[in-house]
Amino acid sequence: MATDANNKIYPLAFAVVESESTETWGWFLACIRRYVTDQRHLCVISDRHPGIQAIFRDTNQDYLQPPMTEHRYCLRHLCSNVNIRWNNETLKNLVWRAASATQERKFNATFDLIENVNRDAHQYLKDVLKEKWALTFDKDYRYGAMTTNISECFNGVLKGARSQPITVMVKYTWFKLNAYFDDRRNKSIEQLNSGKKWCKYALDIFMRNKVKAEHHRVTRLSAQQQSYQVDTPHNPGTARHRDHTHGVNLLQRTCTCQKWKLYKIPCSHVIAVCIRYRHDAEQYIDQCYSVDALFRSYAPVFPVLKDRLSWPDPEET
Ligand SMILES: [Zn+2]
């Protein structure tokens, strides 16, 4: 499963295998690379099943190594592993907070707290490569996606396929997917025709950030370098949001809060700069969130299934 421009499930590929193993995962991922996408920096978020771990450790599989593929771990599975070992709710919440932190400073502070709560758990996490579980070290491949929750939602759609003979299972999946694509294709065309540029997911985040931006104070440091300082006032209503200072550089497309880079949607600091100096902040939303990208994802039309009589003989293939 992948996600579409509106951050909803985008079904990519299905396979029927005897069991999850190094061999079957290797075969499936090789098929993805061969038939679905050969793009570089493909980000794979997994539940760390031993079969997946083994195949990603195999350095002979070039297509599963950086820069071709970036392997990341699902945070929900990681937290659940920590909880099974140490059964400590505070610890679990701290792991979640550290992994979701967008700034290294916040990650380090939370990681220190984890050490205070449980030294063994701290060591356990230290042994896991940080870029694989902590967002701030992700190198921008996750687009903010921390779990595999979205893929598990699709299991419900295919519930009727379980325990069926294999042909029925494949056909059921095929027609369910066709309906899924047809529905979303029509909806994306409606959105295109109504002149919408951005999908709801990104626009909602953008609008929330825009509201926050109204309270920021902007100082220009250099018009040539498009460098700005943004100060956020102390808000007594929210305990966790104190006054902060961030640096925005529109030329380099960076903000020290890191959210712009990680989510590819302008943060409140960037929007504040744009409002103050009359730039169009929406231009900085990544094209991957556009209605046009949504439409293009669902544009391919499923072909008519070949008549049963023209199916290849499995004994001969
Ligand atoms: Zn920012």
User: How much of the residues is beta strand, in percent?
Assistant: 5-15%
Helix content: 40-55%
- How many β-strands, per DSSP? 8
What is the 3D form?
globular
- Regions with little confidence, pLDDT below 50 for 5+ residues: none
Structural class: alpha+beta
**Straight-line N-to-C gap:** 28 Å
In angstroms, what is the radius of gyration? 23 Å
The biggest beta sheet, please? Answer: 4 strands, antiparallel
The SSE string, one letter per element, is EEHEHEHHHHHHHHEEEEHHH
The ligands found in this model are: zinc ion
Count of discrete domains: 2
| Average pLDDT taken over every residue | 93
Report strand order across the widest sheet: 5-6-7-8
Q: Helix count?
A: 13
List the helices and strands and how they pair.
Layout: E1 2-3, E2 9-10, H1 22-36, E3 42-46, H2 50-57, E4 69-73, H3 75-86, H4 89-100, H5 104-117, H6 119-126, H7 130-133, H8 149-157, H9 166-193, H10 200-213, E5 217-222, E6 227-232, E7 244-249, E8 254-255, H11 259-263, H12 268-276, H13 291-298
Parallel strand pairs: 3-4
Antiparallel strand pairs: 1-2, 5-6, 6-7, 7-8
Helix pairs in contact: 1-2, 3-4, 4-5, 5-6, 9-13, 10-12
The protein binds zinc ion.
How would you characterize this protein structure?
- The protein is of the alpha+beta class and about 325 residues long.
- It folds into two domains: about 150 residues, no CATH class; about 80 residues, no CATH class.
- The protein contains 13 helices and eight strands.
- The strands form three sheets. A four-stranded antiparallel beta sheet has the order 5-6-7-8. Strands 1-2 form a two-stranded antiparallel ribbon.
- A hairpin with a 4-residue loop joins β5 and β6.
- The protein is globular.
- The protein binds zinc ion.
- Zinc ion binds next to α11 and α12.
